[in-house]
Amino acid sequence: EGKVMTFRSLYHTEVINDAGLNGHARVTLGGDFDVLTSSPLQDDPGTNPEQLLGLALATCLNATIEAEEGRRGLEHAAEVKVGVDMGKDTEGYQFFLDCQVRIPQVAEAEAQEILAKCERRCPVAKIVGSSQNVRVHLVKQFAF
Amino acid sequence: EGKVMTFRSLYHTEVINDAGLNGHARVTLGGDFDVLTSSPLQDDPGTNPEQLLGLALATCLNATIEAEEGRRGLEHAAEVKVGVDMGKDTEGYQFFLDCQVRIPQVAEAEAQEILAKCERRCPVAKIVGSSQNVRVHLVKQFAF
User: Fold this and answer.
1) ipTM, 2 decimals?
2) HEC string of A45-96?
3) Number of helices (H) and strands (E), helices first, in chain B?
4) Which residue is closest to B136 within chain A, CA to CA?
5) Under an 8 A CB cutoff, do A79 and B33 touch?
6) Residue ranges of chain B assigned to CATH 3.30.300.20
7) Strand order in the sheet with B23-29
8) What's the CATH architecture for B49-138?
């Protein structure tokens, strides 16, 4: 299928969901993280795929920016916020991710340059960034 | 840019990462989920983008399958496991997701039919599924 890893693996982890929407999903190899999940449409405690996906993108992109801040001798001040909306689709549901990035310690031109570079470097951005449902952009203040 | 939500939002949540790779990322609207994150290449406690992305896909796809099991009058028995590998890229890193699905209570032909339908319905699969780095497939037993 062409979907073959051609790089040496530097890290391998495995996770499982067997419960479905309401229950626990967990890491089975490479950590001991366990999360309680629930429907976003109910008021039950727990997280959901929307939040997990948003946290994956926010953390990966900001970690990538943090490394670039370091290369440039800048303090770490960047923040990444992701708003996730769920909408009904012709088949099932869709998620829409609005990823807003603040890099407040530099001028806008440099912030744009840092973000463009980090979007090309960040592994999660590489996977989700080509989707029409995902937008990544620089902001002065977060606004959803 | 064409990246505009054209559906009514049924659910909205917001998450933030301000710490970078080592620290807390958290939900700021639509829940109170907070995660400790750390580098996958260090032995520090905490989860990481690899696990968060894997958990998002595993939970979303299995919840979608669970709904389809219900429509067919089947017990919920499906399990979704995701293996995530990190490899060095020409620019930064890449993640590779091997998403393995077990639907053990039905014959293989029906299991393939359920999975194909649910890949088209699952919001996370819609976003990540077109990436060359993501493979989703039916298995009898999990093997990574």
Assistant:
1) 0.96
2) CCECHHHHHHHHHHHHHHHHHHHHHHHCCCCCCCEEEEEEEEEECCCCEEEE
3) 3, 6
4) A3
5) no
6) 49-138
7) A134-138, A93-102, A79-88, B9-17, B23-29, B34-37
8) 2-Layer Sandwich (3.30)
B60/A contact by beta carbon, under 8 A = yes
Q: State whether residue A28 sits within 8 Å of chain B by CB.
A: yes
- pLDDT range class, residue B1, cuts 50, 70, 90: very low
Q: Return the structure tokens found at A16.
A: 């499982």
What amino acid is encoded at A45 in this protein?
P
| pLDDT for B13 beyond 70 | yes
Q: Kindly state the tokens that stand for B136.
A: 């989703």
DSSP state at residue A32: -
A71 touches chain B (CB under 8 A): no
Contact B41 A11 (CB under 8 A): yes
Strands B93-102 and B134-138, how do they pair? parallel
> pLDDT of A24-55, one tens digit each?
999 999 999 999 999 999 989 999 999 999 99
Q: Which stretches of chain A score pLDDT less than 70?
A: 1-6
Contact state of A97 with B127 under an 8 Å Cβ cutoff: yes
* Residue A3 vs residues A77, A122, A128, B33, B137: alpha-carbon distances, Å: 36, 19, 16, 33, 11
B chain contacts of residue A79, beta-carbon cutoff 8 Å: 16-18
CA distance B35 to A60: 13
